[in-house]
Amino acid sequence: MQSLNAQASLLQQSRIKPLELVFWLLAFAAPVLTPSHALIINEIAIVALFAVSLDIILGYTGIVSLGHAAFFGLGGYAAALFAKHVMPDPLVGLAVGIAAATLLGLMASLTILRGSDLTRLMVTLGLGLILMELANKLDWLTGGADGLQGVVMGPVLGRFEFDLSGQTAAYYSLSVLLVFFVLLRRVTQSPLGATLMAIRDNRLRAMSIGIPVNARLTLAYTLAAAVAGAAGALMTQTTGFASLDLFEFHRSADVLLILVIGGTGWLYGGVAGAIVFKLMQDFLSSITPQYWMFWIGLFLVVLVLVGRDRLIRPWTWLGTGRKGQS
Questions:
Q1: Domain ranges of the chain
Q2: pTM of the predicted model as reported, rounded to 2 decimal places
């Protein structure tokens, strides 16, 4: 009976609430209400999806990664190469990017099952650097330092052409973000998600009560890699260009900062952090192109001193039942 009640409670928490529906409706209305900002909305949606993918392993399993851009970049290059040499259909290319990142995540998950947090940091960082160097050396395939150019995407669902204003791209990325958000919401608010948080809180205790820790970590890491690959595929598909920048360390660092802003252990942390970070970056870089990172750094210092909970309190209605970390 208790098990059934617990499952019913988790299912109730996983459902989209009315106020959340309002938030998503506003998000989808934004490209029409502010057509001049469609490109930044598209970028926010992609970065939010990337941040949500990292939250799966950082917020729900406690694994810190400095090389999450490896999956982002591989998904981006796989989708771009598929569009250029096989077929330009965006949805099929998205699936190819997800599949490539999923396979890499499954293989890479074997490296995070053992060792300390410092070991995992170095291994994940090394993975990203290796892939970036491979993309640089295989210039006959990837374009090397010049990037993969000439990526032309077909219309989404055969009807919606990508335009210069970015409205189609914005709606495409927002739709993919919403689909993955709902999926991950169901995963994290399920018994599987509860076991991941148990592993995060105390791995030895989780093992002692019969939770298959290694299998759960492998599953979470692979799932996070798949979602990061989807974000990378969206980036190359909506920009028509893939470069070594997809693998750069700053992408992994930025997504960590986004979760510092938004908070870990609740999926809306990645979304809220992405909105704040990208809007601040866009605004500050237009005012002080050389020193915008200084002001973001200052904001992070204030965030730590004041406390994130006070600054993100307006978002708490989106995260009912939040079991996140401080």
A1: 2-249
A2: 0.86
